[in-house]
């Protein structure tokens, strides 16, 4: 069963393919996605990588967490599920 990982503190120059290449050194990558800002299409400095097995995911955490990538020490951990957030009314922002 595949396992999704969170990758933080990525250099802003890293794209999906480079992220996939980095993680493919320790196992089979199912998918790799760098999260980008929807307004300016620039990296937000984090992403997600899905490894094919839990063992490969753990190996990726053990091997790559804290590794230097273009001068930044990346963080690699198991991804947590997105928590439900209450919907915000756009009018709430005007009251502040």
- Output the radius of gyration: 16 Å
Helix content: 10-25%
By CATH, the superfamily comes out as RRM (RNA recognition motif) domain
Structural class by secondary-structure content: alpha+beta
Give a count of the beta strands, DSSP E runs of length 2 or more: 6
CATH class: Alpha Beta
Would you give the CATH topology? Alpha-Beta Plaits
Provide the succession of SSEs: EHEEHEEE
From the spread of the alpha carbons, the general shape counts as: globular
Count of individual helical segments: 2
Low-confidence parts, pLDDT < 50 over ≥5 residues?
A: none
Q: Whole-Å distance between the termini?
A: 46 Å
What would you say the CATH architecture is? 2-Layer Sandwich
Beta content comes to 25-35%
Total domains, how many? 1
Strand order of the largest sheet: 2-3-1-6
Description of the molecule:
This protein has 96 residues and is an alpha+beta fold. Helices cover 21% and strands 32% of the residues. It has two helices and six strands, in the order E-H-E-E-H-E-E-E. The strands form two sheets. A four-stranded antiparallel beta sheet has the order 2-3-1-6, with helices on one face. Strands 4-5 form a two-stranded antiparallel ribbon. Strand 4 and strand 5 (72-73) form a beta hairpin. The longest helix has 11 residues, at 54-64. The mean pLDDT is 92.
């Amino acid at each position: 069963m595949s396992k999704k990982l969170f990758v933080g503190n990525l250099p802003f120059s890293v794209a999906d393919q480079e992220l996939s290449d980095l993680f493919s050194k320790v196992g089979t990558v199912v998918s790799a996605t760098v999260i980008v800002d929807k307004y300016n299409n620039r990296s937000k400095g984090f992403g997600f990588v899905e490894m094919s097995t839990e063992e490969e995911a753990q190996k990726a955490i053990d091997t790559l967490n804290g590794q230097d990538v273009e001068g930044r020490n990346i963080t690699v951990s198991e991804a947590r599920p997105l928590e439900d957030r209450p919907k915000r009314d756009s009018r709430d922002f005007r009251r502040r």
